[in-house]
Amino acid sequence: MRKKIKGDSRTPIRGKGWKRSPTIATDKYDTISKAILDSLTTTPIKFSELVKLVGPRVKGFDGSVPWYTIGCLRELETQGRVTRHRKPVLYSKP
Q1: What 8-state DSSP symbol labels residue 94?
Q2: What residue numbers bound the domain in which 15 lies?
Q3: pLDDT tens for each residue of 2-28
Q4: What angle separates helix 47-57 from helix 26-39, to the nearest 10 degrees?
Q5: For the domain that residue 36 is a member of, what is the CATH number?
């Protein structure tokens, strides 16, 4: 389970091997991470394809969908809810 800080308004984004944990607004994290998990299947897809699937699910989102998607992917990967395949980099559900 992710740890919320600063009065539940920010969520830390942890990446494998990162020393610092940047934070993003919890409501934006929740919106994007739900869209990511709804979009992914067990079949690996490219990041650009994932962004195209996430975009329509978050109509009217205030922010850069690709930027928030990569941040949320890192946290979901750390939690074990998303699998990142290497060479080429692809994403799927475990």
Answers
A1: -
A2: 10-92
A3: 555 545 689 988 877 778 888 999 999
A4: 110
A5: 1.10.10.10
Give start and end residues of each alpha helix (H) in 1-94: 26-39, 47-57, 65-79
Stated pTM of the model: 0.84
Which pLDDT tens digit goes with each residue over 28-51?
A: 999 999 999 999 999 999 999 999
* 3 in any annotated domain: no
Query: Cα dist. 28→2, 51, 82, 88 in Å?
Result: 14, 15, 18, 28
Give the closest residue to 52 by CA, choosing from 40, 42, 63: 40
If one counts the domains in the chain, the total is 1
Domain for residue 86, yes or no?
Answer: yes
